[in-house]
Amino acid sequence: MRRLDIAGKRTASQIARASVLDRLLGDDDLDPDADGLDRLRDAVRRDLEALLNAHRPWRKAPAHLHQLRLSGFAYGLPDFTSGALNQPEPRELLRQDVETTIRRMEPRLTQVIVHLADEPDRLRSFLRLRIEALLRVEPIVARIAFDTVIDVTTADMALQLRNGV
């Protein structure tokens, strides 16, 4: 039997459920003691990290094959390890690629904005981004943000859920 709030409605944490894939896989990475919204945020973080650590083919799809942009062919980011990310232009291009990729491949997030974090020492081997968006899983709408660290030598990205958003 479902628990209801005083008005007879299910609460947001009860409505927020793991995705079908997570439920089928019995994903143990998600904290079973956390409420539904926290588990959902953790799942989105994990899925975004997988998306941003995947590398799509260097070869672009032919322009007339529009549907390939939304398919597994376009999953991930282009290889950026050969770029000089200590310069403003390549950093901005990477920021745009991250934002575009999330908007295209993660339907649970809307109003996605990716910011370059100010890094005083541009010769360091990592780059920081902040990803902000609205998490929309009907009927829930919640702000969500991630602090992202990119190791520019290996192209590995690590996302951490930002608290207090």
UniProtKB/TrEMBL annotation:
Residues 39-139 form the IraD/Gp25-like domain. Transmembrane segments: none annotated. Pfam families: GPW_gp25. It comes from the Bacteria. SUPFAM superfamilies: gpW/gp25-like. This is Type VI secretion system baseplate subunit TssE. It comes from Acidisoma silvae. The lineage of its organism: Bacteria, Pseudomonadati, Pseudomonadota, Alphaproteobacteria, Acetobacterales.
